[in-house]
C-alpha cells in the first residue's frame, strides 16, 4: 500500500474520533440549509435552481475549512507526534498529501450530505441539473483550495488558533478580488492589467462561472493550481520545521 494512502486512511478515520468532525458536519449542514431557505429565499424566489444554496458556500468555507484544517499539522507539532511521523519510511510529500486528501474527502462527504436540498428542488420544479452538477464540482474544488491554504497555515505553527486565523486571512484575500469595492480601491494605484490579474485570482471569479454551468479548463486549472501551490508550500514548511 502506498505511504500516502496509509496516512490518508489513518487521518480520515481520525476525523470520526474527534468532536470537530461532527461539529463541522452539523454546522455546515444546518447553516447551509438555513441560509438557503430563510436568507436566500429558496421558496420565495419561485425558481427551480440552487443559486441561493451555492452562493453561501465561499463564506461557509471561509470559516469552516480553516477550522477543519488547523489541526492537520499544528496538533502533530504540539503533541510531538510529528517527529514520530516523519521518522517513518514516508516522504514529507506523502505525509502532506495524505493528510490534505483526508480533509478534502471529509469535506466532500459533508457536501454529499446536502443532497436533500437538491432532491427538494427537483420535487418542486424542473431545475437544470447540469448546472447544479457543475456547481457541486466547483464547490468541491473550491473547498479543496480553502483546505490546501489551511493545511499550509497549520504547517507554519503549533498553535491551532493561530493556524485558524491565518487560514481565514489568507483565504479571505483569495475571495475579495472579485468585489467592485476592491477594484475601485486599487484602480488609482495599480494598472488595469494587474487589477485584472487580482480579479482572476479570486475564488469567486471562477466559482461564479461554474455556478452558471461553465466548466472551463481555466476554472479547473485555477483551483488545481491553488491545491498544488499550497501543497508544495506545506511540504516546504514541514521540511523547514523538521530540520530546525
Task: Provide a compact summary of the structure.
This protein is mostly helical and 244 residues long.
Structure in words:
The chain has 244 residues and is mostly helical. The protein has 14 helices and no strands. The chain has helices at 3-15, 19-39, 51-54, 57-69, 71-79, 81-87, 92-112, 115-124, 129-155, 160-176, 180-186, 192-200, 203-211, 217-243.
* Number of extended strands: 0
Total of helices: 14
When the domains are counted, the total is 1
**Rg, alpha carbons:** 19 Å
**Strand-and-helix sequence, N→C?**
HHHHHHHHHHHHHH
- Gross morphology is globular
What do the pLDDT scores average to? Answer: 84
Structural class assignment: mainly alpha
In helices, the fraction of residues equals over 70%
Regions with pLDDT < 50 over 5+ consecutive residues? none
Distance, first to last CA: 31 Å
Residue share in β-strands = under 5%
Largest sheet: none
Identify the notable features of this structure and list them briefly:
mainly alpha; 244 residues
Give the SSE layout.
Elements: H1 3-15, H2 19-39, H3 51-54, H4 57-69, H5 71-79, H6 81-87, H7 92-112, H8 115-124, H9 129-155, H10 160-176, H11 180-186, H12 192-200, H13 203-211, H14 217-243
